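Incident log, support desk, overnight shift.

02:14 A customer reports that sequence design results differ from what the structure should imply. Their input is reproduced verbatim below. On-call engineer (initials T.W.) acknowledged and began investigating.
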């Protein structure tokens, strides 16, 4: 069966040749795609485009047509032209834009529905649904995990960077209990000193030295054994928390983990968790941490999707493209169930929706993903 999919190199020509005939078919579902197909972010845009080809192959319905347009990246005028262009082709629902900064322009077009892979705003905002893996969903998953692990002294750690206000807003909205917050400098040289203060490292170091002195001049067997035990330690005494949630990623996350281990935080007693990993294998080489837990999409489905994408296009997809894949699935499901999609309400269901990323629900005006907890162990991602 021939697919009505538009590859980026010739999508304009394909649209000009196919749209007129498609307009004659009232049963056709037309979905716009607004992504950067040129410029610095074109690789991401094309990856999103290819992900929809995979989704179309699975849907296997030639009454579904994707109409892509180059909307640039944070380019207001280009985005405006792209929106007008897909509207003129009879599109009512659009996947995109990918950037939260572009939402203001999208909101001006109240006659259209936008599904964005952005993870900044989980709230349903007028005519926009954000299906990205939100910080709220991740923090709720970690909170439930720590509760099940009987952890009740948790420190939520996050850097003093451009996302500071956003993180604090999300934490305030969630109103988590028995959690304390700790902000740190993104500068690794400053960070170490801040972690030393958090862990009371200097006092614990002094406590060890004082304890060792008590046994240094004693010659009885018990004292000698105790001194030998103390010599194996770096500090004496426990920190005043039993778990941490590090809202960070990349090299900054690794700096925090290194500093926590340097200050002798007992990994057998303190549980380390984080966010935003997308199964980043580089974390395997952070040898200072034994077990690192984090919430994520379903790993088996994510891997199957990546393998299928690579086999088809001989390239690895950007992580967020699986969100566009699920977005088209949601649109198609709503279209088949309702027979139409006229407003954002046609895409909101009371029951749970299962996609490639996992299960999500519409609750209290938000999209909440039910994420699994994984940990890194022996250079593998293990579902907890």
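02:41 Re-run completed on a clean worker. Output:
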């Amino acid at each position: 069966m021939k697919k009505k999919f538009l590859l980026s190199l010739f999508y304009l020509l394909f649209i000009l040749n196919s749209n007129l005939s498609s307009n004659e078919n009232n049963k056709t579902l037309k979905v716009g795609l607004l992504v950067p197909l040129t410029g610095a972010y074109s690789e991401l845009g094309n990856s999103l485009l290819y992900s929809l080809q995979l989704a179309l192959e699975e849907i296997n319905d030639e009454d579904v047509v994707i109409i892509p347009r180059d909307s640039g990246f944070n380019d207001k005028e280009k985005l405006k032209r792209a929106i007008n262009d897909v509207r003129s082709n009879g599109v009512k629902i659009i996947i995109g834009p990918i950037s939260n900064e572009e939402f203001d322009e999208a909101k001006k077009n109240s006659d259209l529905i936008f599904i964005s892979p952005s993870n900044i705003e989980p709230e349903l905002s007028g005519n926009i649904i954000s299906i990205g893996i939100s910080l709220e969903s991740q923090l709720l998953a970690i909170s439930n995990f720590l509760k099940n692990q009987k952890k009740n002294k948790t420190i939520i750690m996050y850097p003093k960077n451009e996302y500071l206000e956003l993180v604090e807003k999300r934490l305030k909205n969630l109103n988590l209990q028995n959690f304390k917050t700790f902000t740190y400098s993104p500068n690794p040289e400053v960070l170490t000193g801040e972690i030393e203060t958090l862990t009371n490292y200097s006092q614990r170091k002094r406590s060890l030295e004082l304890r060792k002195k008590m046994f240094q001049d004693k010659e009885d067997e018990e004292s000698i054994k105790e001194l030998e035990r103390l010599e194996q330690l770096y500090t004496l005494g426990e920190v005043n928390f039993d778990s941490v949630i590090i809202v960070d990623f990349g090299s900054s996350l690794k700096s925090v983990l290194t500093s926590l281990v340097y200050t002798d935080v007992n990994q057998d007693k303190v549980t380390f968790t984080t966010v935003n990993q997308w199964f980043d294998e580089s974390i395997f080489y952070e040898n200072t941490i034994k077990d690192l837990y984090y919430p994520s999409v379903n790993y088996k489905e994510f891997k199957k999707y990546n393998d299928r994408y690579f086999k088809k296009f001989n390239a690895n997809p950007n992580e967020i493209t699986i969100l566009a894949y699920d977005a088209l699935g949601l649109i198609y499901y709503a279209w088949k169930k309702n027979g139409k999609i006229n407003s954002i309400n046609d895409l909101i269901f009371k029951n749970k929706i299962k996609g490639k990323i996992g299960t999500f629900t519409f609750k209290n005006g938000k999209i909440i993903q039910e994420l699994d907890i994984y940990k890194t162990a022996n250079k593998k991602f293990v579902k907890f």
